[in-house]
Amino acid sequence: QVQLVESGGGLVQAGGSLRVSCVVARGTSSIYAMGWFRQAPGKDREFVAAISRSGRSTHYADSVRGRFSISRDNAKNTVLLQLNRLEPEDTAVYYCAAAYVSSDTASILLQGVQYWGKGTLVTVSS
User: b/e map of 69-79 (b: 16 or more CB within 10 Å)?
Assistant: First the structure.
């Protein structure tokens, strides 16, 4: 059973930066498309970013494109999300997500997440 463990959340001022990490435990990250979703208080969970198995393909939500950057290190079974120019609207619990796929595309993650982490809270103060 794949286990995803997030870390790196915290409190940051608007305009600041933060990096959240996801480690794939009990599995090999290179066989999964991976990404991040977030859920703000009182709102539905929404897609943030995805990365393909090899890392060559990425996909972002319009709301974060140009501010957030996703990357992965398969040797370390780790996926990173760099959050820059943060806004109060980015406040949410950020969830790591993974899907076992055969193709090397990022957006395929949106077709169905198979594994979720427990989330890490990012709070952006104004």
Answer: bbebebeebbb
What's residue 50's pLDDT?
A: 98
Would you state the pLDDT for residue 31?
Answer: 84
Please say whether the beta carbons of 49 and 59 come within 8 A. yes
SS3 state of residue 50: strand
Within a 13 Å sphere around the CA of 82, how many CA atoms are in the beta-carbon half?
7
**pLDDT tens-digit map of 82-109:** 999 999 999 999 999 999 988 999 999 9
Q: Which of 108, 82, 102 is nearest to 16 (CA)?
A: 82
In DSSP terms, which residues pair with 94 in a beta bridge? 38, 120
Report the 10 Å Cβ neighbour count for 13. 10
* Phi, psi (degrees; rounded to nearest 5) at 118: -90, -10
Can you tell me the distance from the alpha carbon of 100 to that of 103, in angstroms, rounded to the nearest whole number?
9
